[in-house]
Write a structure and sequence with these properties.
Helix content is about 25%, strand content about 35%. It contains four helices and five strands, in the order βααααββββ. A five-stranded antiparallel beta sheet has the order 1-3-4-5-2, covered by helices on one side. The two termini are about 30 Å apart.
Length: about 150
């Protein structure tokens, strides 16, 4: 495990991080779909061509999972992350097709101490994923919890 570099105090409102990219393959799309979202437009080329998407595309949940992987690999491994109480907004804006290269951008919108836990702070974040044409394919917002370097007085 990497040394922790980022605690709640280090996370600046209005800061933006670029968190890497991943090129998705047909095999990844189909493997995920078989296990978690077995709809025809994620599994069958012909059915996908006849769908509103016009071709085989990734599950939105797969896109969220890819975003999470980039987040963990390129930020949370070095952060005092304590998880999240949940998301308030998830939108899949465009389909993700085999061969798309997806890049993740993470913005910090707000932060506040957690009232019930003096050692934890809350951070409101926006996750934006873009394809290789800079078209946004995913939008997520919600709160995350981070350990405080210096806990507040109870």
């Amino acid at each position: 495990m990497a040394e922790l570099r980022y605690y709640w105090e280090d996370l600046e409102i209005d800061s933006v991080r670029e968190l890497g990219s991943h090129t998705i393959t047909r095999e990844e799309i189909m493997d995920f779909a078989r296990q978690f979202d077995p709809q025809p437009f994620h599994l069958d080329e012909q059915a996908a061509k006849e769908s509103v998407f016009g071709g085989l595309c990734a599950s939105g949940w797969h896109t969220c999972g890819l975003a999470m992987r980039l987040m963990v690999t390129n930020f949370l491994h070095e952060a005092a992350s304590l998880g999240s109480p949940g998301l308030e907004d998830v939108r899949w804006l465009k389909p993700v097709f085999p061969g798309d290269t997806l890049s993740l951008r993470h913005a910090i919108l707000a932060k506040r101490p957690m009232n019930s836990r003096p050692d934890v702070g809350l951070v409101r974040t926006r996750w934006m994923m873009f394809n290789q044409d800079q078209a946004q394919v995913l939008h997520m917002e919600g709160w995350a919890m981070f350990r405080r370097r210096t806990p507040a007085a109870p």
